[in-house]
Each structure stands twice: as structure tokens, then as C-alpha cells.
Amino acid sequence: MKFKSLFRRKPLIQHLNSEQCLQPCLTAFDLILFGIGAIIGAGVFVLTGVVAATTAGPAVVLSYSLAGLAALFAALSYAELTASIGGCGSAYNYAYVGFGECIAWLIGWNLVFEYGLSVATVAIGWSGYVEDIFLSLHIALPKGKINLLAIMIVGILTFLLCVGVKESARFNAIVVFIKLLTIAFFIIIASTHVHSANWVPFFPFGWSGVTSGAALVFFAYIGFDALSTAAEETIHPQRDIPLGIIVSVIFCTLIYIIVSALLTGIVSYQTLNNSSPVASALLQLRYPLAAGIVGAGAIAGLTTVMLVMFYGLTRIFLSMARDGLLPTVFSNLHSKTRSPIILIIFSGVIIAFFAGILPIHRAAELVNIGTLTAFTFVCAGVIILRAREPDMPRPFKLPWNPLIPSLGIIFCLYLMMHLPSITWWRFLIWLLIGIVIYFAYGKNNSLLQK
Ligand code: ALA
Which of 99, 154, 217, 398 is deepest in the core (most CB within 10 A)? Predict the structure, then answer.
């Protein structure tokens, strides 16, 4: 009986009282912008160059295609589960309904880690870009052991999220627009300067370089999953969330393929291993003003990634607190803004701490392994729930079940296998800590227990 309680499942339909409810205010358009806001960031602006120079060469465009397929299969699975189960807990919530409490806790724990670290990672990258811009204006910002700029941006985002989600969505829309203009600007300039000689050799590191590159650039796709955490705040979630997820993933895949092909076509891939490869390639072409504009656009781009990932983190955290797996004080909403501000400030402080002290590359690999694990469970969840709950209403049904979710699982596991072993060890330690907390707190305080 005791063992069985580890796998107790949440009912499909949960009733929240009005005090607990978030306010539905987001439209399909907000969601597509949220998706693009979360997806296009440090991945395409930084990792494309690093992966081209060190791992894949011009074939980085194939790494993007491979990682894009994994993302698309997972996105379709997310779309089905979000439309039918909903809630603000994303994969955590689906696992609670499909697999049971213990696995749901581990997935939630893992998502909190992934989202929190990705905000910290992008904050560190953001501070690097800001420093570079100041340097180009001949202003050297004081450097210390603690990354004060990264802490500052986390503080600003914490404030924005406390103010409320509609305001955050407005801010996001403006910045996404700037980010897209920046990319369009790069595409227009770069497309007139391609030298096909730069694409030779196309596979300087062989096929294994392409797959290792895919495991890294997968980071560029992370973020669409954060859309599923907005289900409760969306006016027509069953129609708009699948739409938002699928449109934003396909759109970003196309952008990534175009940008990576152009970037390796305008300069030699060997020159791209730096912290702002897109801007530095334009500098090589002797377009300093364009490079400055792209640098500024990248800063804007990174800001929305952090905002949406931070938003997602607080929603999953909220869902876990509501279920009693974390202290319920975190689920209190502010009477006016209806935002969970205790939880937002608590998370902001922890993220700022890590953003202040961590080196960027350590965090990024961990984000990938955590995300790929969650995606694998989401794909498996589709197959299991189709069997366990055949009559559950599914406003969006992915085609060719179980082929598509199975392909999702295979692609995600394949990419995980190409991450370094040190990343696996760190990840396992994090999961172990999660298991200890579950048995010490969550299991006994779970609403299902009561
Ligand atoms: N996909 C996001 C980025 O590339 C996390 O920054």
C-alpha cells in the first residue's frame, strides 16, 4: 500500500477556488510572441558560432535541423497534453495525471532546476553583451568576483513578474518585435555577402560533430515548453496553446536554419568562437553600425528569454505548492495583481545568487539534460494516457500516435547520449536531492495524502 502511494495520480479535472485561480488574459497572439520570446536567445545568438567553430563546422545547419526535429516531436506532444490536461504545471502536471506523484515530483523538481538555471545562464550571457556594448563605447564597467549586472537584470525581471502577467506580456511583445527586426536586418545584410567557399569543407568534424552540435544547439529550442505553463491564464487555452507552441517552434526552426547557414556562409566558421558571433561576423564584413544594432537586438532578445523562462518557473513552482508538495505559503496570490509574489521574490533571490557566481558554460549543459528528460516524459505521457484514458477529451490530437511521440523519445534520448558524462553526474546528484526532499516533506504533505 505504501509503495502504491508513491504512484497515486491526480484526477484529470481539478477544482480550484476563486482565491487560487490565476486570471485568464492571454490571447493566441500573446502566446506566439511568448513562444518566440522564450525560444530565440542565447542559443542562436551565441551557440551557433561556438558550435560552428568547435563542433560541427558549416554543418551546424544540420545540427539545427536535427535538434529542431526533436523539438517538433516534443512540441506536438506538449500541445496534446496541454490542451487536454491544462493547469499551470506543464510536464509536472501531466506526469501527475499520467505517471503518479513520485515521478511528477521528480519532473517538477527537474523543471524548476532547468528553468531557474536557464534564467541564470542567459542573465550571465546578457551581462557579457552589455559589457561588450559599453566597451565599444570605450566605457569599461568595473569587474569583480560577483556578476552585478546579471543580478541587476534578475532583479528587474522579478519586479516585472510581481507587477502582473498582462504587463509582462506587453513588455514581451515590444521586445520580441525588436528581436525579430534585428534578425531580419542580419538576414538582409548577410544574404548579399555569402561566399560558397566558406561552406567548404562542410563537415570538418564529420557526422559525430553534427550530432554533438545538435545536443548543444538544442538549447536554442528550449522555451516553447514554458508556453504550456500559461494554460490557466489563456482565454482559449485548448485552441491557442497548441497553436502557440507549434507555430513558434516551426517559425524558430526556419529562422535558425537560415541564420546558421548565412552566418557560416559570410565568414569562415573558424572565426566564430566568441561571445557575440553574429555581431562579430558583421564586424568582419566591415559593418560596425550593423554589428552594434545586432548586439543591442541580441540584448533585447536575451531579456525576453529570461522573462518567459522565469514566468514558467514560477508557474510550475506554484502548481507544486498548490498540490502540497512544497510549502503552501508559496501559492498565496497578491490580492491586487493576482501574482504569486512570495514565490516570485523567493525564486528571484535564488536565481540572482547563481547568476552572480556561476560561470556560463557549466549551467548551459545542465539545462539541456534537464529539459530533454522532461521532454522524454511528456512524449511517453502521450502514449500512456492514450491507453489509460482513451475517453479523455483531446481538443488537439497529435497525428500518427504512437509514431510521433516515440520518435520524440528516441530523438531526445539520442541527444542526451551526446552530452558529457560530468553533466550526467551533476544531474543525477540533483535528482537525488529531489528524492530526499520528497520523502522528507512532499510525500507527507501532499494534498492527495490528506
Ligand atoms: N532557447 C533559449 C535561448 O536560446 C533558452 O536562449
Answer: 217
